[in-house]
């Protein structure tokens, strides 16, 4: 009986080891998202409420601890909404350095160029968005609307 129990334990250990070894490659190949991404719901709620000062305060703390494209993009957006175009440009650039296909950063950077009258640069962002979403996307539509509105004035 004692040997049967030890044999059973040995069999379980071997099975567990085999499962761990065979599961590891599947985990490594999987395209998993980072689990250390910050929760931005509170920041987005403040932005939706147009509390840019509150959002900016929260984002500054997050930006110190997180090199994330979403954090930098929202930092750029919030700074742009407070009128700090120069620093806004810096954060959009950082977001795109981390993730060149970040559609929201491309849209918001284009909107920054529209607001500062740099229409050729805004059109460059339109071209980038057309490549990122050839079937169209909300970010492309929003930037094109901003350009049309500026050209209509």
Automatic annotation (TrEMBL):
Pfam hit, one: TPR_16
InterPro entries, sorted: TPR-like_helical_dom_sf (IPR011990), TPR_rpt (IPR019734)
Keywords, sorted A to Z: Signal, TPR repeat
Presence of the UniProt keyword Signal in the record: yes
SMART domains in UniProt: TPR (SM00028)
First and last residue of the signal peptide: 1-28
Entry-linked PROSITE patterns: TPR
Gene3D superfamilies attached to this UniProt entry: Tetratricopeptide repeat domain (1.25.40.10)
Descriptive protein name: Uncharacterized protein
Species assigned in the record: Rhizobium chutanense
């Amino acid at each position: 009986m004692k040997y049967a129990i030890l044999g059973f334990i040995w069999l379980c250990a071997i099975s567990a080891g085999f499962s761990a070894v065979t599961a590891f490659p599947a985990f490594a190949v999987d395209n998993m998202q980072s689990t250390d991404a910050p929760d931005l719901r509170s920041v987005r709620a403040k932005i939706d409420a147009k509390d840019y000062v509150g959002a900016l305060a929260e984002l500054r703390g997050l930006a110190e601890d997180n090199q994330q494209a979403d954090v930098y993009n929202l930092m750029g957006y919030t700074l742009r909404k407070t009128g700090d175009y120069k620093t806004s440009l810096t954060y959009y650039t950082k977001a795109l350095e981390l993730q060149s296909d970040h559609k929201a950063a491309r849209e918001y950077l284009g909107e920054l160029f529209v607001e500062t009258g740099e229409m050729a640069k805004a059109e460059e962002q339109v071209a980038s968005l057309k490549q990122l979403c050839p079937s169209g996307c909300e970010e492309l539509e929003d930037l094109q609307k901003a350009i049309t509105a500026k050209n209509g004035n």
